[in-house]
Amino acid sequence: MTRFVDVHNMVRWVAGRGPERIISEMIEYMEEDFRRWEHFDKCPRVASHTPFGVIELMPTSDHESYGFKYVNGHPSNPSRGFQTVTAFGVLADVHNGYPTFLAEMTVLTALRTAATSAMVARRLARPGSRVMAMIGTGSQSEFQALAFRATLGIQELRIWDTDPAAIAKFLRNIEPMGFDVTVGSSAADAVQGADIITTCTADKARATILSADLIEPGVHLNAIGGDCPGKTELDPAILLGGEVFVEFTPQTRVEGEIQQMPTDFPVTEFWEVLLGARPGRTSPEQITIFDSVGFAIEDFSALRYVRDAVAGTAFFEEIDLVANPDDPKDLFALVAALSPVG
Amino acid sequence: MTRFVDVHNMVRWVAGRGPERIISEMIEYMEEDFRRWEHFDKCPRVASHTPFGVIELMPTSDHESYGFKYVNGHPSNPSRGFQTVTAFGVLADVHNGYPTFLAEMTVLTALRTAATSAMVARRLARPGSRVMAMIGTGSQSEFQALAFRATLGIQELRIWDTDPAAIAKFLRNIEPMGFDVTVGSSAADAVQGADIITTCTADKARATILSADLIEPGVHLNAIGGDCPGKTELDPAILLGGEVFVEFTPQTRVEGEIQQMPTDFPVTEFWEVLLGARPGRTSPEQITIFDSVGFAIEDFSALRYVRDAVAGTAFFEEIDLVANPDDPKDLFALVAALSPVG
């Protein structure tokens, strides 16, 4: 039988264990996997595009477990009552190829994206960073805020969204949790004085939500909204003014903010920083930019963590996903046993 | 909610409706999809190889529905009590990216592979074909036999397998269904006098289960076992002696029997024959070879067919795979509603 964590169980588990604890624990799994980056099978995700959205498969393997995520991105979904992003994921045993674990990943992706952002910011943001600006207060925003509090102690947020309802929603969710939130009058206003800027907007278009003159020296920019060909958030001049860090270069060149730059534009893969092979931030004045698009290894870590964390709990069920004939060469026996013909 | 056909329901449905009827109906869906071949998003499947097996994702889309299959291939699995191939698949709505249908595909893949073989043979085998030789009597063999009976009226089988237990298993399953079966003394013996030869062996290696001198004029060769880089069944001389038909050339050049041939070795894609754009069999003496590896559109057709066929029946359940917050931008509300913090 295959273990399955559905939405109901995932939400109950997250609420009970606490999103901040989950994000902190997930970062441990992620750092473990990023440290053995070279050991993984890696490929850019496989995307099927339409003019209004994308569906992607994101596989990877560490030669013990294989994992993949199904994820969509449809920026116009919320106006029709659907979420921009939904996802589910699977782990399998590489040794026999059998799927072992299935989980909803709409909630889990929000947690893993937040964990990735915080994992990277912990290494790249200026020590003593206190204030985070957040441009975009959609589905992912509360998870981002909790991740930065859990990991860097960020309590003070300056926010902006073009949708007033999204701002109101964010305030309603986040203020009871003890954050100090200021709503800016614009994106430009919101980022003033911030140590960290998180951009998390969703428009399948070339957008410029921030221009280079707004990015003050020493800022760490956590850019997670630009993640598809033709979908960017930042003025290219911002990328020229800082050091750019990425997950998996071949994928980010196609999907990330750096799709706007020449193909030899210099970037550093984050795993190299984690291992000490390449420098991270080199001065307090440097602008560091995490051009994040989301990579399969992050989902692999998230799935691995949830699989381990729910073992022995009531937060999963077993589903009958893989046929199991007594004789492995006699698949037909399953049908014959029930067949009027057999 | 997402509809889910698990193994239990799939087997009950197949046994009740009957595998031959299912294969015939599935071929209708497949031909419909092969006729609009050019309309599909197509890419070679995405494979993660180890020395002992492969795990693959096979996506495609007709711009209304998106589908993919997860499938493994581990030829040494049966000796350890596991099946060589297991699979599951998903359909999603391209317009919002939400997954709508999940199904076991271990049983379904055996049916779809058999349906594909029979769909192709119906167009390419010599009219009046009466006898089929089957080399390899593993998991797929009974489904192949039923498909060829349902589609071409084949009643007479000549079989061979290196594993006597697999032969005994095949006889036990197939004889009660009214086939006339002769067990050969070797592969060479079994193919003598056959109109159609189905090769369905599984070894992750270059094997030569048939040599060119054994292939008589007019034979249709349904070669389904060679489907991975380094995994072939046929003497390359066989390919030179006939006309080779494939599913999706870019994938078959890497995975099929033609991986043994130069990259410009001429092949015909089957959809072109179906549309009448290219010739199929041109004479009763011609040897036609279907170098089948399995392509995503076949799984898409199979999933589409099962989805439609089980609608309104009790052969599926609904699972809670996709989060559904009241406000699509308020994913966090799902957690907050249950959280001690919220």
UniProtKB/TrEMBL annotation, chains A, B:
Name of the protein: Ornithine cyclodeaminase
SUPFAM superfamilies xrefs: NAD(P)-binding Rossmann-fold domains
Upper lineage: Bacteria, Bacillati, Actinomycetota, Actinomycetes, Micrococcales
Entries under PANTHER family matching the protein: KETIMINE REDUCTASE MU-CRYSTALLIN
Organism this protein belongs to: Arthrobacter cavernae
Entries under InterPro entries matching the protein: NAD(P)-bd_dom_sf, ODC_Mu_crystall, ODC_N
